[in-house]
Amino acid sequence: MARQRLDLGLDDRIGDMSDDAIYCRTYGHTNMPRPSGRARRAELRQQGLAESGLVCQVCGRDRTDLIDLSTWEVVSSSTTYPEGYLIKGGQGRLPRAAARKAMFVRRNWV
Ligand SMILES: [Zn+2]
């Protein structure tokens, strides 16, 4: 079987994405819980709510989920991405396969 020519060109949307951001888009975030302070917990509990903060130890992405204590469902979520995580032009997150390719090419793993 003939070998196909390998395309190692990277997605233009990667731009200045950091290596950490590309790692997290490939393998997922490494989360550590960030509990709310006592006063915030009391305030939320009076409203039947709780919140769960998660901070990625690799890229710094910070997500907070608001939880309804009657159902334990997440009712809203907010995320703050570090500089260099989102692709250029407000187009959101890089597709996972494109991130994997970028990681392999940047690190000379292929
Ligand atoms: Zn991350």
Describe this structure in words.
The protein has 110 residues and is α+β, with helices and mostly antiparallel strands. The chain has one domain. It is built from three helices and four strands. It has a four-stranded antiparallel β-sheet. Strand 3 and strand 4 (73-80) form a beta hairpin. Helix 1 (19-27) crosses helix 3. The model has no long low-confidence stretch (mean pLDDT 91).
How is the secondary structure organized here?
Elements: H1 19-27, E1 31-34, H2 38-46, E2 49-56, E3 62-68, E4 73-80, H3 96-106
Antiparallel strand pairs: 1-2, 2-3, 3-4
Helix pairs in contact: 1-3
Zinc ion is lined by residues 24, 29, 56, 58-59, 61.
What labels would you give this structure?
3 helices; binds zinc ion; 4 strands; four-stranded antiparallel β-sheet
